[in-house]
Amino acid sequence: MGRQISLGLLLAGVWLLLSGYFDNPLLLSFGAASVVLCVYLAHRANVLDEEGAPTTMIFRMIGYWIWLAGEIGKANVAVARQALAVTPKLSPKMITAPMVQRTNVGRVIFANSITLTPGTVSIAMDENGILVHALTEELADVAAIADMGERAARTEGGTS
Q1: Residue ranges covered by each domain of the chain
Q2: What b/e readout covers 5-18, taking b as 16+ CB neighbours within 10 angstroms?
Q3: pLDDT tens per residue across span 88-135
Q4: Is 20 left (phi over 0), alpha (psi -120 to 50) or beta?
Q5: In what order do the strands lie in the sheet with 93-98?
Q6: pLDDT, tens digit, for every residue of 24-33?
Q7: Helix crossing, 58-84 with 142-156: angle to 10°?
Q8: CA distances, 31 to each of 1, 8, 16, 48, 58 (Å)
Q9: What is the SS3 assignment for 136?
Q10: What's the pTM?
């Protein structure tokens, strides 16, 4: 029951933030009905388990997002420097970074974090690693990407 309530509160909060309707009773009731329907369907589909509704990760995710925003900013500067250079020093590379996450949620967080970071893209995953395309030598830092993976594992509750 706790997962249904937390999912309902999260969906209601996201709906309110994205819609901006705080004073129209008809639209608020449509939003509430859609939240109730989504929670019911998630419960009926039996996807409100630890992986489908990871309520224990919420506070760890906030810290991870703050750290990731800083990494995205640093990578933005590196990519912008190359884009604005008279003679850019692009050196595309494919590297394999280790994956230490224990759940699919942790793996998705890690792969999406790599792809969100400018100049890097997650290409493929297997049990042991993730194939990453990097735009420059600076961005193809396996140690930095492995650190991101360890942080993602700590966010999911892993023991890295």
Answers
A1: 2-44, 55-156
A2: ebbbeebbeebeee
A3: 888 999 999 999 988 888 899 999 999 999 999 999 998 889 999 999
A4: left
A5: 93-98, 129-134, 120-125
A6: 899 999 999 9
A7: 160
A8: 21, 11, 8, 21, 23
A9: coil
A10: 0.72
